[in-house]
């Protein structure tokens, strides 16, 4: 019975949740609605494509889904969609603002009409704004919820789409970041997805190509080879963001720094999801104790490994391949905080070198030896633990901040090199978590560190733990993220989107 309950929990990650998906009758929205339902959610589909939407409801089942005609540019329609979802299912847990359009390609701004620009902005931006507004209206009193919006690759680069479309998707990212700051105090998570082009009805109409034509064009231009992005992949990303946690059956993983903190939590989670795990660390007692605690001798191994030693890192990679036959996942997680020197004049040169030895050279060696065995196999995942210090400044010692920026740079460069071999490379940047590393560096009890983290957090009502980082690693390591590469996934409850100096000033003035 316990095994059945665990299997159910792993396969139905939205059990009891209620979701509203705009643009849910086709493309990414349709795939997401079906996936959410498969994972136990009740789904309300909001769209203007009545016939297609009714067909989706018929497929999902009328007991688990409903259709609401909704033009997202009409506030009354959006308000009604939210209210009807709540009246039908009793609440709203997930708002997926997915409806959007693309205009016809006009690369020169002088050829663009104001009316066309306004139409794209009305649906892609105002529609998202209205969805956010009315979702917040019912989520704030409940002090919980997840708001997700569909942006685009065009939100991160220029020249890949029309002026109107690119402008609109940048705006969606701006809305997301601002709303994350406002709603964090109510325990509401706000995120957006920025997918590469894929063969949806929207893209096919925009490019005037069929499925095969779109996929061939996108595959030719893609950095990551050997895999084609599908709507299901975006739906899986939405599922990850909507759920309170992702699967690795048959995979082989090495986790450096795997004996404690983030590494220990990830080792436990990977094993739970079916992976064979090699724990690499210098903490022999902790590593061996973890193996005994997991009690999976055919699935879990410990290898002593100093990540600053080329021979040690080479050995652990060779051990994994010899024992388990291959290496699918290399999680370069080992790291140290170094001395807490917050002024440049006090920063110690030897400490600076030591932090870089472990945090940067250790990550480099892990990536190098993982690539050595992954390139011939033309597959694999390389992950790094960076830090929120890679995206905010002034809150960590110079050595630590510089090392974590360096890790993100290494990840991005490696993503470009290894994409041609089908190898994905990503990093995770968590906020402060009361791990043994942090409590030891700060010289404070865990409870005191947790109180400090709570007080400074943007997202209230939840305390970040090592498990949250493990969940992020699980998603990035699984096939659910098979087209995600070059991403620095920030796990900080929106902390890095806020201006802490401004917030402190406003509290003083209040």
TrEMBL record:
Keyword terms of this UniProt record: Oxidoreductase
InterPro entries (alphabetical): ABA2-like, NAD(P)-bd_dom_sf, Sc_DH/Rdtase_CS, SDR_fam
Gene Ontology molecular function: oxidoreductase activity, acting on the CH-OH group of donors, NAD or NADP as acceptor
Gene3D superfamilies reported in the protein's UniProt record: NAD(P)-binding Rossmann-like Domain (3.40.50.720)
Oxidoreductase keyword on record: yes
Domain of life: Eukaryota
UniProt-listed SUPFAM superfamilies: NAD(P)-binding Rossmann-fold domains (SSF51735)
Family, similarity comment: Belongs to the short-chain dehydrogenases/reductases (SDR) family.
The protein, known as: Secoisolariciresinol dehydrogenase
Species this protein is from: Sesamum angolense
Taxon lineage: Eukaryota, Viridiplantae, Streptophyta, Embryophyta, Tracheophyta
